[in-house]
Design a protein that fits this description.
Chain lengths: 249, 479
């Protein structure tokens, strides 16, 4: 099992948002989480990566069998958990390439590997950028500064490819993307898919799930997983909405 | 305060790593300031009578002046009579070999081993320990090119005509309270003269260091770049930990003649004091350069990380037509540090241009003020200025203030001013940490990004040091 979430409770400020959530993410599988607004989808992903706004009040999260709820965000990242941000923040004056290389080498150091030198790094970064339809100049720009919505999302996927994580949480990676960007992003995701990796795709839409086929769909409502099923759940949702699924219970 | 902020506080409040002092025999003047003390000091230094008289003159001017209080700074009244105005090691070594090994060890602790620096090509060091120069390197090599690089004391004896012509010509002894004080009691400093058409092949460096307890340090620097010459001068300093506030009032004068260029870079790391500001250095500095000739250029770059109080406005008087003045500054205040710093660009000649890039970083309870004056005289046809003042706040107990002054008496002037204030956000930090970059590295990355334009102006040898110092000063600081 890649990730086991056991009876998890978490709050933001005074408000409890995750209310006894149970979820297992299998190694090598693509899991999708869907659910109405306010169900706790984004809070769940923030909880897994250790976001500063979230306070865990109960339960546990095991990553490869090890509890991570007390770990610093960077430690979770170095162990192989990656989350794409809905709206990545701008960092003026720090070039994309410098940031990426620092991140990649932090992980390599953690894994006891030699750091990538500038040439090796650039070769790799340019190759992935090309795959994602990004211009090589993007690497020299300040991180996320003045990036369009699509450029930001592609850049998130570029980071994912470079860091080669084991658990990949994609938080609304498909929102606001045009069809070309969506295809590019999906291509990036499919590139890294393997029996060793687990995806957790959080989405409002079924669009991305047509490109990245999920093995499991989990419906989240009011801080809990209320239903788990296969791809057919997406079709049902599309046809009947969340209401129908709620009524089934 | 959340967990994140607490941790940050912990790291920001790290003990001053360079805080130590060296025990060597001092020959110190008794505390207090009067004509006798000045005569003693001047005699100790073996100065000619004209210099002694200049000092006495400055002392009389100073006595009539009032300490300025307009800066955005809070500090207790300084008792000038409790300060000792002269301290010097007893033995004056003739070469580095004769230097007290304890002093050399102190330099090593500061990461600037002279022995190694001698070997390092490209950097000549005029090291000032307390008030007397103890070692100079590359002097001979420079001498062959006609470049004079020596202590100001030596220059007063060896090159009186240059001193009499240029000292007090840019910063008159009556310029301000601290400049007058310095003119009366300056102990030592650096003198540079680059002759016509010579491009100085080395970065000239000096390290200053306060060592004697309760001893003010009054450095005096004079750099003259004759027609068509070029020189790059680096000044850097660090001070050991002390309980009492130490006064530092330096004066720097730069003169660039026709077609000459002076690049003056500073890394200032005086002891900043503890979290309450106790024991830090009071740094009141007057730095000014005059672009005296056509097409001359003066460029100030400073990285200010230390001192409890910083009062400093490196300025350019753009007298020559087409002359250029630049000011690039990073000022960091943490703990209870206060900085009121900026520049003055005085446009007198035609087609003169100036650039001001100021980056202020405040953390913990630090207060950072930018104070800048751009003055366009009626004679300055087609003058141009670009000013950019950016402030970065770390945490919610610090402050950033901007006081831009603008006076234009010529309608053809083009003046642009931009100012921004931003905060290192939790979101920025979290983003970098989610990518596996630890908190300290993340802060450092954001800060370096913020200061990039300024750091890029430092000479290479200096840039790495500045980066380390920024990291040391701000390690983990966030809010």
């Amino acid at each position: 099992m890649m990730l086991e979430i056991k009876d998890l409770r978490a709050k933001i400020g005074e408000k409890e948002i995750i209310k006894g959530l149970n979820l297992n993410l299998e190694k090598g599988k693509v899991h999708a989480i869907m659910g109405p607004n306010g169900a706790g989808k984004s809070t769940l992903s923030k909880t897994i990566v250790g976001h500063y706004e979230v306070e865990v009040t109960g339960g546990d999260i095991l990553f490869k069998g090890e509890s991570i709820v007390d770990m610093e965000p960077e430690e979770r990242a170095l162990k192989g958990i990656f989350m794409s941000f809905q709206n990545p923040v701008e960092v003026p004056g720090v070039t994309n390439a410098y940031f990426l290389r620092t991140a990649v080498n932090a992980k390599r150091e953690y894994e006891g590997k030699e750091p990538l030198n500038a040439a090796e790094f650039l070769r790799m970064a340019r190759e992935y950028a090309k795959l994602l339809g990004m211009k090589p100049e993007m690497l020299n720009r300040s991180l996320n500064v003045g990036f369009s919505g699509g450029e930001k999302k592609r850049n998130e996927i570029l980071q994912m490819l470079m860091l080669d994580p084991d658990l990949i949480i994609l938080d609304e990676i498909d929102s606001g993307l045009d069809i070309d960007a969506l295809k590019a992003v999906s291509e990036g995701i499919n590139k890294i898919k393997s029996p060793e990796k687990t995806f957790l795709i959080i989405t409002h839409y079924s669009r991305i799930l047509e490109y990245v086929k999920p093995d499991y769909i989990h419906i989240l409502k009011d801080g809990k997983v209320v239903k788990t099923g296969g791809y057919e759940l997406v079709k049902k949702l599309e046809a009947e909405g969340y209401k129908a699924i709620e009524e089934e219970q | 305060m959340n967990e994140e902020q607490k941790k940050i506080q912990e790291v920001v409040s790290r003990e001053y790593e360079l805080g130590f002092s060296v025990d060597i025999e001092e020959e110190t003047a008794p505390p207090g300031l009067n004509e006798d003390i000045i005569r003693f000091l001047s005699k100790k230094k073996g100065e000619p009578e004209w210099m002694t008289n200049m000092r006495i003159q400055a002392f009389h001017i100073w006595q009539k002046m009032e300490e300025p209080r307009w800066a955005h700074l809070k500090y207790d009244v300084i008792d000038y009579q409790s300060i000792s105005y002269y301290a010097a090691p007893k033995k004056k070594p003739k070469s580095l070999d004769e230097v007290d090994p304890e002093i050399l060890r102190a330099y090593e602790k500061l990461g600037i081993p002279l022995e190694e620096q001698k070997a390092l090509a490209g950097v000549a060091v005029d090291a000032v320990f307390d008030s007397v120069s103890i070692g100079t390197t590359f002097k001979e090599k420079l001498k062959e090119m006609g470049i004079i690089f020596c202590s100001i004391s030596e220059a007063i004896k060896e090159y009186p005509e240059l001193i009499q012509k240029y000292m007090f010509s840019v910063v008159p002894m009556s310029d301000n309270f601290f400049a007058a004080l310095n003119s009366a009691v300056f102990t030592d400093g650096t003198f540079v003269y680059v002759p016509k058409g010579v491009r100085c092949p080395l970065e000239l460096s000096t390290y200053f260091r306060i060592n004697a307890q309760n001893t003010g340090q009054f450095e005096r620097t004079l750099i003259i770049a004759d027609e068509g010459s070029y020189v790059s001068y680096n000044e850097g300093c660090s001070a050991p930990m002390r309980d009492e506030n130490q006064l530092h009032a330096a004066v720097v004068e730069l003169i660039a003649l026709k077609d000459a260029e002076i690049k003056y870079s500073t890394i200032q790391n005086w002891y900043p004091g503890d979290e309450e500001g106790r024991g830090g250095i009071y740094n009141f500095v007057t730095k000014r350069g005059v672009c005296a000739g056509e097409n001359s250029k003066i460029s100030w770059t400073q990285v200010e990380t230390g001192s409890a109080i910083t009062w400093k406005y490196p300025s350019c008087v753009l007298k020559g037509d087409n002359s250029v003045g630049e000011f690039y500054s990073v000022a960091i205040t943490t703990k209870a540090q206060q900085a009121d710093t900026g520049t003055k660009m005085i446009h007198i000649g035609k087609n003169t241009s100036s650039t001001i890039i100021s980056k202020g970083i405040s953390a913990m309870r630090g207060q950072n003020s930018y104070r800048g004056l751009v003055k366009i005289q009626a004679s300055a046809q087609n003058a141009r200025n670009y000013s950019e003042c950016d402030s970065l706040l770390i945490g919610d107990k610090c402050g950033a203030h901007t006081f831009p002054y603008l006076e234009s008496k010529n309608a053809s002037a083009q003046i642009e001013h931009e100012a921004t204030t931003s905060k290192i956000s939790d979101e920025q930090l979290f983003y970098l940490r989610q990518r596996g970059i630890n908190e300290e590295d993340a802060v450092s990355m954001i800060v370096h990004g913020f200061c990039k334009e300024v750091l890029a102006n430092l000479p290479m040898e200096f840039a790495a040091e500045a980066k380390d110092l920024l990291n040391l000063t701000l390690e983990g600081s966030v809010g």
